[in-house]
Amino acid sequence: MIVAPHSPSVDRANKTILEMNESTSEALRECDDDYRQYKNLPESARVKGGWDRKVKVTMRGPRFVAMVADETSFCDGSYPNDDHVAVVFDMATGELVKWTDFVIGVNETAAATFKSIDGATSSGISTTGLTELALKRADTDPECRQALESLGQMEFQIWPDARHEQLIVKVMGLPHVVRACEEDIGLSIPEARQQGFRDDILGPIEQAHRLAASMLKK
């Protein structure tokens, strides 16, 4: 939960986080049910399906709060299900960021929505500029380039990284066998600006980075 002075925007963000946690609890129950079915166990059997989640906070303000989770579940005996979700709140409203609101001057821009294995949702974006960038980054790996080209216009999760003063974009939607090609691409502030991201998201990232750097010096 977000601990901050009480306000409607904080309450709204915390309500969303609570709903996500409830969705995770339901996903864990379903994982146990799948494991019982895989092992042919009765419903009364106490089991614990494999589930691992690592969460890190990549920005704590000003204005934006960002949390990133990497999850792996193993519930039905086939292969691990890896997933990634980036949850970014605009604390001016307490709502999840809609990334199309923070991009200007980019052709063929479209919104994207992602739902993780635990039910959490996050917004993303699809642009020709980011698609071309991802393909260029994959030039040294023919298998990844081929996998990315198969997606056509790619969809990206996005989140701010205040520590490294970057905006991170990640290709989503690849099959499990080439999931390693879903690389995190760090955009510097000038690079993000060239991709059309607005200063009202980039400015706070710069400010958060300066604040973090000054705290380390003390």
The class by helix and strand makeup works out as alpha+beta
Give helix and strand order, one letter per element, not per position.
HEEEEEEHHEEEHH
- Percent of residues in helices comes to 25-40%
Number of helices: 5
Q: How would you sum up the major sheet?
A: 5 strands, antiparallel
Shape: globular
Radius of gyration: 19 Å
Structurally, the number of domains stands at 1
**Residue runs with pLDDT of under 50 for 5 or more positions:** none
- Give the N-to-C terminal Cα separation: 28 Å
Number of strands: 9
What is the percentage of strand-forming residues?
25-35%
Could you report the average pLDDT, rounded to the nearest whole number? 88
Structure characterization notes:
With about 220 residues, this protein is α+β, with helices and mostly antiparallel strands. It has one domain. Helix content is about 35%, strand content about 30%. It is built from five helices and nine strands, in the order αββββββααβββαα. The strands form two sheets. The protein has a five-stranded antiparallel β-sheet with strand order 5-6-7-8-9. Strands 1-2-3-4 form a four-stranded antiparallel β-sheet, sandwiched between helices. It is globular, with a radius of gyration of 19 Å. The relative contact order is 0.13. The model has no long low-confidence stretch (mean pLDDT about 90).
Q: How is the secondary structure organized here?
A:
Blueprint: H1 8-39, E1 50-60, E2 64-74, E3 81-90, E4 95-96, E5 110-115, E6 121-126, H2 128-137, H3 142-149, E7 155-161, E8 166-172, E9 184-188, H4 189-194, H5 199-217
Antiparallel strand pairs: 1-2, 2-3, 3-4, 5-6, 6-7, 7-8, 8-9
